[in-house]
Amino acid sequence: MSFEKVLKQATVCYLCRGSQILLAIKARHIGEGCWNGYGGGIEGGETAREAAVRELKEETGGVIVLPEDLEKIAEIDFHNTKTDGSVFVCKVHFFIARTWVGEAIETEEMLRPTWFEIDQIPLDELMPADKKWLPFALSGKKVKATPRYAPFQKSLLEDFDVEFVTRFDDPE
Predict the structure, then answer these.
(1) Is there a contact between 64 and 101 (Cβ–Cβ < 8 Å)?
(2) How many Å apart are CA 113 and CA 20, to the nearest integer?
């Protein structure tokens, strides 16, 4: 039986340069085996931006970004069904960074860091919900969504809408 990780607040950060985005393959837990950005849970006392900075540094092997250099692109409330039928919601704050110091290397958490042209992201190899909302967010729109996942976040239980917003209300 696989471990069912439960997170209530998390963050993901994508590094972007020109028309390219850096993705890596998630090595474990939620998103395992999928191309993804860098991120994880928000720890007690941290803001979403602080968590994004910390997680990016940990998962890239040392890339440093300043909180003020993060641009929030999405806020997604993932409704995750567990194998016992219970549901937990994880609010994930998504950011992009265009300025940073260092180079991403492969780590225990993130494998094969690879630069992709934004219009050539391997959508079918992302987490199921990401292939729907991420292209909008990378095109400059700010998005919100509420996808509903089956156990282990391998498939969606239903289609979902993507909402376009001008700003995010939650503190970052």
Answers:
(1) yes
(2) 13
Domain range list for the chain? 9-165
Runs of H (alpha helix) within 10-129: 48-60
CA of residue 140 relative to chain centroid, distance: 16
pLDDT tens digits, 41-67: 999 999 999 999 999 999 999 999 999
Residue 158 DSSP code = S
80-95 pLDDT, tens digit per residue, is: 999 999 999 999 999 9
CATH code for the structural domain at 9-165: 3.90.79.10
What distance in Å separates the CA atoms of residue 18 and residue 132, rounded to the nearest whole number? 22
What φ, ψ does residue 103 adopt, rounded to 5°?
-125, 135
Q: Distance (Å, rounded) from C-alpha 115 to C-alpha 102?
A: 15
Contact 60, 105 (CB under 8 A): yes
Give me 111's structure tokens: 């494998």
